[in-house]
Amino acid sequence: MILAHQAEQGPCAWDAYGRTLAERGYRVFIPSLTASPEDVMSAAVAWLGAAGVSEYAMVGASMGGAYVLSTAGELNPAPSVVVAISSPAQYNDIDALAGIRAITQPILLVAGTGDDDFADQARRLAEAQPDSRVLLVESSAHGTALLATDTEVAAAVEAALTAAIGND
Questions:
Q1: Confidence check: pLDDT of 167 > 70
Q2: What is the DSSP code string of 43-92?
Q3: Is the pTM of this model over 0.90?
């Protein structure tokens, strides 16, 4: 499991959720997003592979969502599922909109309808990859806060992870 943090946060933003996933049997890698998406995600996949993980998921919040969406289609091995919470279609020079087109695995896009224009961006991303699933909830929470405070979001993310990889 790769958890990618949002801007103005760091890996610690995923600490509680990462520990919960680890307690459920998942191997969890939470990188610091300080290099290019390709370098960071390739290193994360290599770490998981060295730890014996054969199937993994990528979950990103906001900027982290752009990181996972922009790279998932190019990674080897590819993730079993990609989850992007409050992801922008474009973050600086990171093009999630272009990257999502290369993803062939299941994708869950999540956003709160009261969170700026992130619901609209989730719809744009879904138009670029029609096989993705979109979950829009009535909330102004963003990224990891949306996952932590909305039970429908938490259940949908858990279901996506379990359906794709079970407990690795």
A1: no
A2: HHHHHHHHTT--S-EEEEETHHHHHHHHHGGG-SSPPSEEEEES--SEET
A3: yes
